[in-house]
Amino acid sequence: MKILLTGSNGFIAQNLALFLAEVSALEVVSFSRGDSLDEVLQEPIDFVFHLAGVNRPLHDDEFQAGNVELTKSLVESLVERGFAPSVLFASSTQADQDNAYGRSKALAEDILRNFGKKVGAKVFIYRLSNVFGKWARPNYNSVIATFIDKLLKNQPIDIHDPGTKLRLSYIDDVCAEFVRRLTPDSSLSGYYEIENFYETTVGELAEKLTLIKKSRTSTTIPNVGSGLMRPLYATYLSYLPKEDFRYPLRVNSDSRGKFVEILQTSHSGQFSFFTADPGITRGGHYHHTKNEKFIVLRGKAKFCFYNLLTGETYEIVTDDQFIEAVETCPGWAHDITNVGNDELIVALWANEIFDPEAPDTIAKPFRDLRLRL
Q1: pTM of the prediction?
Q2: Which of 69, 188, 200, 283 has the fewest CB atoms below 10 angstroms from its CB?
């Protein structure tokens, strides 16, 4: 299947090209500003992603050349060669508005719909608005890219009306939707929308991005696994300069070893790790409600438990040769001893963030009650 991708240097096209490269049996021919249609249309085309266009020109007359005349030239070249490919056109929600940009997009839509009727080709028109994601240009056509750019430069975000509503489409959802149009099915020519979208306000958007920025210094991260925060977080990371791919964590050291909080979440507790030299015991406390999971990454550890109600004791010995989770349970005090010959390194998850004002960690040494293996 041979694909023509116009506007190949643009934000959406660059992402779409990556998606298309993941599909087998596709050959993509790229067309960008300065290229010749005669050169790219030497062989029959099966599908056209028409993403080329102008939306931020210096002069309004560029809309006519970049949106209308280019589309007309594309259609004329296809008809002249007897090609009748399906066409997907990236239009704009402004196509129904009375401004120079909107009128040019509406005219381009008409040209493509007439082409489809004339040669019997399918034409899919998507009126897009506020598409965001990696590789969008700040201060150009993405408010999210602009906000992220300012945050990374420690510049204030200027907001005239924080209550302004936004309907956002994530670039991955856009590309996935576009790629689905390549599959022959019962889809008819017409207007389509990106099914997955997000609604928010300018003010809420700025707050979410600011929270994401702070997460790299506070180690407390918001819920970035679902909803709008998921694509926002990915987009923010995509703009990081490579020098910021890493950042330091605070290390707490004492005679027992090191303790490092890796990540605190607003919804799923916190992740950390600790070390202990041979013979060192850590813990010796219990929790009313908090629970933890431990995984030995290096060394050998003995977990000792003491039932606060019955006095029963229990031991688990585990090491890095058999990866398993050891869980602490409310009602049982616990401690961990390095019983190996090397430094012990243990990863730890707790179901809640440690609160020094209400730690739910009560000391209960019980070494004299341990079982001896």
Answers
A1: 0.89
A2: 188
